């Protein structure tokens, strides 16, 4: 879901996210330790790791929902932003009563409008929502009941909601949970195309290493600390990754890029930050 109800113009691609020595504790137990990351605009970054590694906590830290040590900066044209950028967020699951007569339009109305949801979407909002659903391949679902959607359809609706208004940063937490295998590749392909179309910065938490490896620009293996990061091929070849997830099948290796793709467009914030 989007953390703001305001209308946003398409991202200019000059916003980066930087984590400096970030740590999170639950009581006395460390959940994240000494996290240093520079997440570039226009890149799709996949976060992988075992259960309990702190992957979801990392997303919630970026959202500002978790107390932490260290610093989370948002860089815009080489300067720290005084406020958070527009952040879209897709959680692992949407909790709702499937027997309730709630439609997709009702969900968007409750999220985007101040007037009661039972009054329906205003005409101008209906057009905006329709465009977002079309971008997520779910335009035909606007008037469908949430309880009748498949897992894949519901995740597409949640993705469309996170894109309304268009964010600078999109966080996806296990977005294909509940999606059948046939829909996993299609979902990741769609996310990759959205990243290219809107020059989004996307951080994606997943257990589907094989599926996401062909679409990610960068992969990070997290287990409370950052164990490995780089191109998908580099991270998937790391001994600890292979110990936990097993070795890649030969046919998969052929489809995994040896080096991460370059950022689709010039990263303005990074370029200016690097200048003396």
Features:
six-stranded mixed sheet; alpha/beta; 276 residues
Structure description:
- The structure is a single chain.
- The radius of gyration is 19 Å and the shape is globular.
- It is an alpha/beta fold and 276 residues long.
- β1 and β2 (29-39) form a beta hairpin.
- It has helices at residues 55-63, 104-112, 123-135, 151-162, 181-198, 209-212, 232-236, 239-245, 250-253, 268-274, and strands spanning 15-26, 29-39, 44-48, 69-76, 79-80, 87-90, 169-173, 201-205, 218-223, 225-230.
Strand content: 15-25%
**Form type:** globular
Question: What spatial order of strands do you see in the largest sheet?
Answer: 6-7-8-3-9-10
The major beta sheet can be summarized as: 6 strands, mixed
In short, what is this structure?
The protein is α/β, with parallel strands linked by helices and 276 residues long.
Summarize the topology.
Layout: E1 15-26, E2 29-39, E3 44-48, H1 55-63, E4 69-76, E5 79-80, E6 87-90, H2 104-112, H3 123-135, H4 151-162, E7 169-173, H5 181-198, E8 201-205, H6 209-212, E9 218-223, E10 225-230, H7 232-236, H8 239-245, H9 250-253, H10 268-274
Parallel strand pairs: 3-8, 3-9, 6-7, 7-8
Antiparallel strand pairs: 1-2, 1-4, 4-5, 9-10
Helix pairs in contact: 3-4
